[in-house]
Structure formats: structure tokens, C-alpha cells
């Protein structure tokens, strides 16, 4: 597929090696061919004079040739993950980079270092790295490899290299400029559809997230009341003779219901809530990706316009335009491919998560 | 139980109607009237249905009936009426006396009351009760003519007796404690149950929101669309199912409430016993005092300090004639007192015997009823879970097809 091969030549940080080319675009999930296994665990807190922060242990096991060893263990902090994400976004502006857990959680006033918060974040970071590993393009990103393998000091020195602040600023300026120009004139049909979809999806997923949280809350309150309900029956049985056993029986059943409710709630918080949240973040990311694609196209369009006005330096321009057109084409293709992949994944996730919820509820009622 | 009224007669409270009328102080008010239907039970006659008699009564007339019965049969645990005002409500239930659900539950409660009275071996034979069921006009006057209000013991007297009684029958003291405990535990239970119902309602109803969003979401999806849509439908079913479930639970709550109010009836019997016992003790004390007085006068010794003794010391002894007269009076009084004491004792023992018999009957009824109520509650919970299983199995199928 020639168009796919072109993507390769335009990504600066992509290692062009024969083996990676064949691995390039695997759309079907083939778990048996996974050769990169990552876990994030063991949060530890570090206290320095200036700040307190948490690091997580990142363990990588791989059979890939380009890795010098088959096992790596490093410690990373949240900042490092942020760095990785921004590098990936830079390198692949129109690929869908997985979401990171948020910096803070505003509502609920969760302590920055509460156990629940750390655990939730750890799980999300684990998911983040694994999603990158599963992505046919991103998994071979050089910065990703460094993230997984470099020692702390190696990583900091590597971070200091790279395009740096100025070029990033340049990107931002271009972005602002293009949005000032007011949208894109010839957005292809496909992307209009995708845009509409993402807008609606984003709305719906946000509402679902809220509903799920509300249900969790109501269940917690229900549990609290039930905890008081059972013991009353035991108390009553103390004043009775004949019906004491029946009352004690009811009390123990209520206790069992409480335990079943706790299990149900755990199922929600371990499964449904994190996934819904992840897709809330995803919908934001999607909007970002679509915007960036629009930007790139905007650049192309403006250059085409400029060409139309300046007949003279045609050759120069046409070469630039040629490059930009390619760029746009690649970006579009990358996005489309990724989009399809993402949707499949999402479907899978949603399916399994809701099925899981249904199973949970089944178990609850059966108990 | 052989010749209790319930066996001879079918009693139902079949309807409730809103009425307006003028009350005692000539102000217009709205109240609910209940239709009582009675029909004699024929024995094995095919195709022969006795005619149905019916009349309308309002809640205040039921109250009057119950007060009459409590005063006239103080040794009986008189069945309680359903609550006057809606208590233990949770947010969906209204506290309005005119609310149709409340009226309906009250109708059932009133019917239950009549059936309990009619199945009671003693109460069912009461004439006033019978006329309550059958005589439309003039019943109120008939009740008032019995003068039962005069027989009622004053609350103050009863309170006094409760504090001062020295030797009540132990069983009654235990019973009083039991009824206190029963009342407190049942009202606590009902309160928490109302809160649990509220929360459960919330959980189910929020799932209904899923239904709406799923259906909206399915509009933009292709492969997932059908699965989402049908799953959403099941969420709606789930959310709607809670209404019926909780309505059934209200009946369970009403059964418990009846025994909550029965606790008060138990206490009333205990109070009567305490009153009688106190009366007895006072009479005995009085008698002893008089006997002592008599003895003192007869033997001329002053055993205990008394004002009379002092004054006679100061102002001189009475004449022998005066003393004789006094002794005579006292002897008469003592004889009267002994008679009274004997009859009071008898009364007391009779009361204890018949009250205790009724209490035993009540205990059996209570154990039976509560056991059944608990069983039906468990059955309700099982059915709720079965419904849940069905809904979520369906939903799961829809989800797996997404």
C-alpha cells in the first residue's frame, strides 16, 4: 500500500527499518503477536526540600530486537508521562494519542496524595502506556522507547534535547493564526461526519459519566441505610421468643445484601467508571486531533491561495505545496486509519464494560 | 372462635368517597367516608346469595367505636385503628390525608380492624359493634347513651397509679417493658425502612437516565446502534419496576404498623391492672388504718403518734359514750371495707385471669402474623431480585451484541 509507506518518510522520529515497516499498520488486534508488555505499579512517595512527589515503577518485558535487553525496570513520575505525551503529539499531530489521567481532581476535593487518588492514577497510567504499546505506529516511537528504558538521569538529559521551547511556540502561533482565519473551507466530507459524531459523542459520554457517578453515589447511600437496617432486626429478636429466629434470619439476609451491594459498587468503580472517564478524556483528545488536522489543511489551503496570487515564484511554491499536500494527505489517512481503530476499540470497550456491569448486577441479584 | 361474628357474616370496607359537610362547629370541611358492606354467610345454599347491607361511616366514627370498646372491655387487647395521619413517609409517598394511595391503604386498614374485632371471641358479641355494622342512623347517640365516657379512667389517675403501685403482678410489669421495647424497635425499623426505600428508589430511577442517553447515543452509532437502543429500553423497564415493588412493601410496612399500635393497646391493659391493683392497695391500707384506730380506741393505748392522741392528752379524754359511738362507726366502716376489699380482690383476680387469657391469645396472633409478614417480605425481596435478574440478563444480551 503505497500511501501508507509515505507516512513513514514524513515522520521524523520514526525509525525506518525493514522490520518496523512490516509491523506498521496492523489493524486487527492480534494479541498473540504482542511483544511488548508493560506494567505500572508500586507508587512511592519522595520528599525533597522543594517538593513532594510520587514515582511509579514501570516494568517492561519485550522480545523486540531494537531493545537492548528483554526486561527493564524504571521509575517515572507524572511529569515524565506528560513529557512523553507531548512528544507523541508533536511527532504525530493527527494520531489519536491516549489520554493521561488529569493533573488534579477539582470536585470532591481529593487529597493529592490520598490512596484512592494514587491508585486511580496508577491504573490510568498503566492503561496509557499499554494503549500506546498496542498502537501500530506509536509503539515504535523513539521517545516511547526511551521512556521505557532510560535511567532517570538519561531521561532528563534526553528531555533537554529536542525542538525545545521556541519551535513549540512557533507551532502555537501558527495554530492561533489558523484559527483566527476562521475554520477550514474545504474540509472533506469524511471529516465533517467525524466532527459531528465526536461532538454528539462527547455530549453523550459526559452525561453517561455523570449518570454512572450518580448511581454510585445513590448506591453508597443505600448501603449506609441498609447497614443500619439489619441490626434493628437483631435487636428486636432479643425481645421475642417465638419469632426470634425469623428475625435473626432476616437480619443475616440483610447483611448479605449489604455485602452484595458492596461488590456491585466495587465493580462499578473498578470497571465502568474509569472507562467512561477515559472516553470523556478521549472525546476531548479527538476534538484536538480534528482541530490539528484542520490546521494542517489550513496551511495547505493558504499556500494554494498564495500561489494563485503570485504567479512568479511558481516553482518554489509548487514544491512547498507539493510537500504540504502530501502532509495533509498523510495526516488525513493517519487520522482515518486511527479513527477506525479507535472506534473499534471503543466499541469493544463499551461492550465489555457494559456487559460487565450487567454481569455484576446479575451476580448481585443472584446473591 | 366457634360463634364469633366473622364466621357468620362477611364484612368488607369496599369503597371510600370524598365528602363535604358541616361539622360540629358548623364549618365546612372535607372528609372521607367509607362504605361498609355486610352480608350474612349462608351455609351451603347454592345460588342463594344473601342481600348485601351497606352503610357509610367516617374515620371519627371508627374512633368512637374503638374508644367505647377500650373502656367497656379494659381487660381485652383491643385491635388498633390504622394511623390517623400518614407517618414514616419517604419522598414519594405524600403525607396528605386526601391522597388516594393513603386513602386506599386506610380503607384496607379499617377493614382489617373490623375483621379483627369480629373474630375476637368477646368483642364480636358486643351490641354496639353490631349496630355499628348494621344500623345507619342514630348509632352515635346509642353509643353516647351507654355513658361509657364516664367509665373511662382519667389519665392522671392512671399515671398516679403507675408510679405508686407497690405490688403489681410481675407478668404485667414484664408485659409493659415488652410493649415499650416493641414500640421503639418497630418505629425505628419503619423509619429506616422508609429511608432504605427512598435510596433504592433513587438507584433505580437514575438507571432510567441511561435509557434516554443510550437511545440518543444509538442515533449516531452504526454497529452499536441496535444493541444500545434495546439495552436502553431495558434500563427504562428496570427504572419503572421500582414503583410496583415499593408499593407492595408499603403493605408490609402497614402490617408492622398495626403491631406498633397494638403495643399501645397492651400498655392500656397494663395500666388498667396497675390502676386496679393500686386501688386495692389503697383500700387495704385504709382498712388496716381503720382497724388500728379501732383497736386504739378500744384498748386506750396510743401506739402511734397521732394528732388526736395529742389533742386528747392536752384537752382531756373523751367520754366513754363518745368513744363507744366512734368504735361503732369504725366497726361498721371496717365491715364495709372488708366487703369492698374482698370484692376488689375478686375483681382484681378476675381481671388478671381474663386479661391474661386475652394476652395469651394476642401473643399467638402476634407471632403468627409477624411470621407471615416476615415471610411475605422475604418473598417480595426474592421477586424483586428475580425481576432484576431478568432485566439485566436481557440488557447483557443487548450489550454483547453491540
TrEMBL record, chain A:
One of its GO terms (biological process) is protein transport. Residues 307-334 form a coiled coil. The keyword Oxidoreductase does not apply. Residues 9-21 have a biased composition (Low complexity). SUPFAM superfamilies: PX domain. Keywords: Coiled coil, Protein transport, Transport. Residues 1-23 are annotated as: Disordered. Pfam families: PX (PF00787). One of its GO terms (molecular function) is phosphatidylinositol binding. InterPro entries: AH/BAR_dom_sf, PX_dom, PX_dom_sf, PX_SNX7. Residues 34-155 form the PX domain. GO terms for cellular component: early endosome; phagophore assembly site. It comes from the Eukaryota. Belongs to the sorting nexin family. This is SNX7 protein. The lineage of its organism: Eukaryota, Metazoa, Chordata, Craniata, Vertebrata. The gene is Snx7.
Automatic annotation (TrEMBL), chain B:
GO terms for molecular function: phosphatidylinositol-3-phosphate binding. One of its GO terms (biological process) is positive regulation of autophagosome assembly. CDD domains: BAR_SNX4, PX_SNX4. Keywords: Protein transport, Transport. InterPro entries: AH/BAR_dom_sf (IPR027267), PX_dom (IPR001683), PX_dom_sf (IPR036871), PX_SNX4 (IPR034902), SNX4 (IPR034783), SNX4_BAR (IPR037430). The keyword Protein transport applies. SUPFAM superfamilies: PX domain (SSF64268). Residues 12-139 form the PX domain. GO terms for cellular component: early endosome membrane; plasma membrane; SNARE complex. PANTHER family: SORTING NEXIN-4 (PTHR46596:SF1). Belongs to the sorting nexin family. This is SNX4 protein.
Amino acid at each position: 500500500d503505497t500511501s501508507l509507506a509515505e507516512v513513514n518518510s514524513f515522520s521524523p522520529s520514526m525509525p525506518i527499518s525493514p522490520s518496523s515497516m512490516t509491523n506498521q499498520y496492523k489493524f486487527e488486534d492480534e494479541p498473540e503477536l504482542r511483544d511488548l508488555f508493560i506494567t505500572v505499579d508500586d507508587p512511592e512517595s519522595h520528599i525533597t526540600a522543594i517538593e513532594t512527589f510520587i514515582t511509579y515503577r514501570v516494568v517492561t518485558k519485550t522480545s523486540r530486537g531494537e531493545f537492548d535487553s528483554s526486561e527493564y525496570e524504571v521509575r517515572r513520575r507524572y511529569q515524565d508521562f506528560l513529557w512523553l505525551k507531548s512528544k507523541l503529539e508533536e511527532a504525530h499531530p493527527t494520531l489519536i494519542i491516549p489520554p493521561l489521567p488529569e493533573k488534579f481532581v477539582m470536585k470532591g476535593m481529593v487529597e493529592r496524595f490520598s490512596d484512592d487518588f494514587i491508585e486511580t492514577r496508577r491504573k490510568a497510567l498503566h492503561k496509557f502506556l499499554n494503549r500506546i504499546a498496542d498502537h501500530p505506529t506509536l509503539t515504535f516511537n523513539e521517545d516511547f522507547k526511551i521512556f521505557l528504558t532510560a535511567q532517570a538521569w538519561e531521561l532528563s538529559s534526553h528531555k533537554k534535547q529536542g525542538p525545545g521551547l521556541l519551535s513549540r511556540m512557533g507551532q502555537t502561533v501558527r495554530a492561533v493564526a489558523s484559527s483566527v482565519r476562521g475554520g477550514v473551507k474545504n474540509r472533506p466530507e469524511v471529516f465533517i461526519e467525524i466532527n459531528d459524531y465526536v461532538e454528539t459523542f462527547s455530549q453523550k459520554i459526559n452525561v453517561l459519566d455523570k449518570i454512572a457517578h450518580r448511581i454510585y453515589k445513590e448506591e453508597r447511600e443505600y448501603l449506609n441505610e441498609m447497614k443500619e437496617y439489619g441490626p434493628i432486626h437483631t435487636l428486636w429478636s432479643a425481645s421475642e421468643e417465638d419469632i426470634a429466629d425469623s428475625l435473626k434470619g432476616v437480619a443475616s439476609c440483610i447483611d448479605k445484601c449489604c455485602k452484595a451491594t458492596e461488590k456491585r459498587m466495587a465493580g462499578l468503580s473498578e470497571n465502568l467508571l474509569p472507562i467512561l472517564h477515559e472516553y470523556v478524556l478521549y472525546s476531548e483528545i479527538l476534538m484536538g486531533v480534528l482541530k490539528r488536522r484542520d490546521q494542517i489543511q489550513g496551511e495547505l489551503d493558504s499556500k494554494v491561495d498564495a500561489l494563485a496570487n503570485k504567479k512568479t515564484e511558481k516553482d518554489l511554491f509548487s514544491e512547498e505545496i507539493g510537500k504540504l499536500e502530501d502532509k495533509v494527505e498523510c495526516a488525513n489517512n493517519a487520522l482515518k486509519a486511527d479513527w477506525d481503530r479507535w472506534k473499534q476499540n471503543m466499541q469493544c470497550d463499551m461492550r465489555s464494560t457494559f456487559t460487565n456491569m450487567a454481569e455484576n448486577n446479575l451476580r448481585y441479584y443472584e446473591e | 372462635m366457634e360463634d364469633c361474628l366473622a364466621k357468620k357474616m362477611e364484612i368488607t370496607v369496599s369503597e371510600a368517597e370524598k365528602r363535604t359537610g358541616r361539622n360540629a362547629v358548623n364549618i365546612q370541611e372535607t372528609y372521607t367516608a367509607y362504605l361498609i358492606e355486610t352480608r350474612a354467610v349462608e351455609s351451603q345454599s347454592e345460588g342463594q346469595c344473601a342481600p348485601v347491607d351497606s352503610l357509610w361511616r367516617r374515620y371519627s366514627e371508627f374512633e368512637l367505636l374503638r374508644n367505647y370498646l377500650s373502656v367497656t372491655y379494659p381487660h381485652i387487647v383491643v385491635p388498633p385503628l390504622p394511623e390517623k395521619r400518614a407517618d414514616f413517609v419517604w419522598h414519594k409517598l405524600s403525607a396528605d390525608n386526601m391522597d388516594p394511595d393513603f386513602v386506599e391503604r386506610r380503607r384496607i386498614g379499617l377493614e382489617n380492624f373490623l375483621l379483627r374485632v369480629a373474630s375476637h371471641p368477646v368483642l364480636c358479641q358486643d351490641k354496639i359493634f353490631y349496630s355499628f355494622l348494621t344500623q345507619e342512623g342514630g348509632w352515635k347517640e346509642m353509643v353516647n347513651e351507654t355513658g361509657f365516657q364516664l367509665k373511662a379512667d382519667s389519665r392522671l389517675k392512671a399515671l398516679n397509679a403507675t408510679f405508686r403501685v407497690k405490688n403489681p403482678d410481675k407478668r404485667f410489669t414484664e408485659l409493659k417493658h415488652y410493649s415499650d421495647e416493641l414500640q421503639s424497635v418497630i418505629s425505628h425499623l419503619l423509619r429506616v425502612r422508609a429511608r432504605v426505600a427512598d435510596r433504592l428508589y433513587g438507584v433505580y430511577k437514575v438507571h432510567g437516565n441511561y435509557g434516554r442517553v443510550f437511545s440518543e447515543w444509538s442515533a449516531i452509532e452504526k454497529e452499536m446502534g441496535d444493541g444500545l437502543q434495546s439495552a436502553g429500553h431495558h434500563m427504562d423497564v428496570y427504572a419503572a419496576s421500582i414503583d410496583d415493588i415499593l408499593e407492595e412493601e408499603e403493605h408490609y410496612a402497614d402490617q408492622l404498623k398495626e403491631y406498633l399500635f397494638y403495643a399501645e393497646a397492651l400498655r392500656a391493659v397494663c395500666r388498667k391492672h396497675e390502676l386496679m391493683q393500686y386501688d386495692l392497695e389503697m383500700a387495704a391500707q385504709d382498712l388496716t388504718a381503720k382497724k388500728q384506730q379501732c383497736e386504739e380506741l378500744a384498748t386506750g393505748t396510743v401506739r402511734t403518734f397521732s394528732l388526736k392522741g395529742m389533742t386528747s392528752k392536752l384537752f382531756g379524754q373523751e367520754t366513754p359514750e363518745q368513744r363507744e359511738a366512734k368504735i361503732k362507726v369504725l366497726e361498721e366502716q371496717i365491715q364495709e371495707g372488708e366487703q369492698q376489699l374482698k370484692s376488689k380482690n375478686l375483681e382484681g383476680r378476675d381481671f388478671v385471669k381474663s386479661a391474661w387469657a386475652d394476652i395469651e391469645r394476642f401473643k399467638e396472633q402476634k407471632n403468627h402474623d409477624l411470621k407471615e409478614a416476615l415471610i411475605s417480605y422475604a418473598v417480595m425481596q426474592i421477586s424483586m431480585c428475580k425481576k432484576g435478574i431478568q432485566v439485566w440478563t436481557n440488557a447483557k444480551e443487548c450489550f454483547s451484541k453491540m
